Amino acid sequence: MAPATASRRNEERDLALKWSNRVSLTPRILAVNIFALALLAGGFSYLDSFRSRIVDSRVAQASREVRLIAQALASATPERRDLLVLSLARDTGSRIRLFDEEGRLISDSRALGLRNVVLRDPDKDPWNQSVARFLDAMIDTVAGAERAPLYRERDPEHGLEWPDVRTARVTHGTPATVWRAPDRTPVITAAAPITQLGAVMTTVNARDITTTVRAERYRLGVVLAIVSIVSILLSLFLARTIVKPLRHLARAAIRVRLGRAREVTVPRLPTRRDEIGLLARAISDMSGALRARIDATEAFAADVTHELKNPLASLRSAVEGLGNVKDPALQERLIAIVRDDVHRLDRLITDISEASRLDAQLSRATFEPVDIDALLAALIAQRQSRSVPNDVRIRFDRVGAGGFEVLGEGARLERVFENLVENAISFSPEGGLITLSLRAEGDMLVVRVEDEGPGVPEEAREAIFRRFHSVRPQSEAFGQHSGLGLAIARTIVEGHQGSIAVESREDRLSGARFVVRLPLANRR
């Protein structure tokens, strides 16, 4: 059955990628993998939220600690207050400062000799710390992290300049604030009011948060680097295994299209069992079929030229002779020659036209069920009604009942069997018998046409299907056939996914047997 024709517009709509139809496959593969890496790189944004949760936890802890410290200092006597401040600062790891109600500094754990909170000078840090701070700033900018205010010391006599101290005095709560040290590490301050005394403020440099986040960021960076290298290598591998053979196939196809070389070798990639290998073998077979079609077209053109030259030469000679011959009998003979040559040219041109268009017409044809039994019966009845020469008899045998339908074009198939019957009549002796038999063998319908003529020599059984190859009976006048009948019959049968051949007769009698095999419609 002829394949259905797909809409080119629908195919283009299904296969087109508007965003990438101008981009080579290699950058597309790299882009897809890099996009996946970009999703992985989004883990750096997760680290920012991870750091925010840790900072929030430490802020809540600082608020609880400063509340407890305030309660402890409120119950301590003035004599023991400094010792308690020093002890609590050592236990909590923070700097504790006590302010009176006017905001003046009363006690400071650093002034008491405990320097447990010391901010680093970034100018004195080694180069790796500078790189780490630069990466922190860059990632914070990309992630859109909020930037904490820079931590700066206030005048000891003006403690109310600290936002936490001032808020604690006004609201009687325990506010806390996150600051940014010069080395970009967080500094957390918290304050709590003390009844009839003032307020206490704690300060802690949470350098461990930055250390933890940087360690996790380093691990994620190492993973990202390894995955990036592997992804790029895989992308290059895919580009090599996909793009490179496609480029070879495209170049071969371009060479075939340009036609600069008689034989273009298209790589078949026999070791590949994927779609690329299938495409390579399909293109190779297509180019081979195209070369065969071109060769056949060239040979057909040469054969047509040769076949047309003979009647044209005869016609030219006859026309030239008419001008020189005065004998009416000779003129009549020359006119008969001209008439025969004109008929022969007309027959040749008609058959050549049909043979040249046959492949294209069959590829576009819509096949329908054809009852070969009824077709052969009608063909035989029609031929017998016109009288068969030499008293040749025609017999039709059927093996089985019904189920002799094939998918095809009835007119074309009728032309095949008509050619075979006419060919058998031409070679049949006086009173000879032509037998047409019809039977189903598996999923194929087999039609045999047998005659009692001289038969076909085994070495010529393939040659008789070539175009313009004509072996006719001696009794037949020259030029009655174009030599295209069997070639047209084979083209029609093969266009119906069948076959036609000449076989030896099983009964060992003289004569030829033509066998046509066609797929059955109800068993396909």
Describe the protein in words.
The chain is an alpha+beta fold. It folds into three domains: 178 residues, Beta-Lactamase (2-Layer Sandwich); 70 residues, Signal transduction histidine kinase, dimerisation/phosphotransfer (DHp) domain (Helix Hairpins, Orthogonal Bundle); 158 residues, Heat Shock Protein 90, CATH 3.30.565. Helix content is 53%, strand content 14%. The protein has twelve helices and twelve strands. The strands form three sheets. Strands 2-1-5-4-3 form a five-stranded antiparallel beta sheet. Strands 7-9-10-12-11 form a five-stranded mixed beta sheet. Strands 6-8 form a two-stranded antiparallel sheet. α3 runs antiparallel to α4 and α3 runs antiparallel to α7. The longest helix is centred in the middle third of the chain and has 52 residues. The protein is rod-shaped, with a radius of gyration of 50 Å. It starts with 7 loop residues before the first helix and ends in a 5-residue tail after the last strand.
Counting helices, strands and paired strands, the structural category is alpha+beta
Give the number of domains. Answer: 3
Q: What is the tally of beta strands?
A: 12
Number of helices: 12
What is the name of the CATH class of the largest domain? Alpha Beta
User: Strand-residue fraction?
Assistant: 5-15%
CATH architectural grouping of the largest domain: 2-Layer Sandwich
Strand order of the largest sheet: 2-1-5-4-3
CATH-level-4 superfamily name of the largest domain: PAS domain
- The first-to-last residue Cα distance is 10 Å
What is the CATH topology descriptor of the largest domain?
Answer: Beta-Lactamase
Q: Give the rounded overall mean pLDDT.
A: 80
The outline comes out as rod-shaped
Proportion of helical residues: 40-55%
N-to-C SSE string, H for helix and E for strand = HHHHEEHHEEEHHHEHEEHEEHEE
> Would you identify the regions where 5 or more consecutive residues have pLDDT less than 50?
1-12, 14-21, 472-479
Alpha-carbon Rg, integer: 50 Å
Largest sheet entry: 5 strands, antiparallel
